[in-house]
Amino acid sequence: MKLTAPIVAALQPREKRYKIFDGKGLHIQVNPCGGKYWRYKFRYLGKEQLLSLGVFPEVSPDEARRQHKKARDILATGVNPLSVMGKTDKAAAHRQEVEVLHETLQVAAQIHPPQFRHRCPMWGEEEITEFDPEFTMCQCFPWIKK
Predict the structure, then answer these.
(1) Rg (CA), the chain
(2) Taking the complete model, does pTM exceed 0.85, yes or no?
(3) I need a surface site. Which of 16, 22, 52, 137 has the fewest CB within 10 A?
(4) Tell me: domain 5-79, CATH 3.30.160.390, correct?
(5) What are the boundaries of each domain within the chain?
(6) What is the mean pLDDT of each run of 10 residues along the chain (146 residues)?
């Protein structure tokens, strides 16, 4: 059965997580808290793999099918879709997070130079490329509460 947006929207959470399959490994996973996640279940080199395709309603059934087809095409060439689709998105998100944090640190250094330099000894003239966001926010901006 092909899943449509009204069908997926009507899915209710249960006590345990459950899956409704769309076909060829594509399914929506409904968690007890109500989250609905598109997944593609496949085998690569004899091992079962699971690729996350997004969250409903941000990712519609049609978009999930397009991503699923792209992943199947990648798999057909003998390449693991996780190595192409999954990690690339995470790496891009990490790079963006680092850029935003770097800009935030630069602005904070201009606004609060004495506090910032005193609390954040890792700040120097050289460019910072790797951050631990939790450490940076706690050490450099203790007045910011989560």
Answers:
(1) 21
(2) no
(3) 16
(4) yes
(5) 5-79, 89-140
(6) 91 94 93 91 90 91 94 91 71 65 67 52 47 53 52
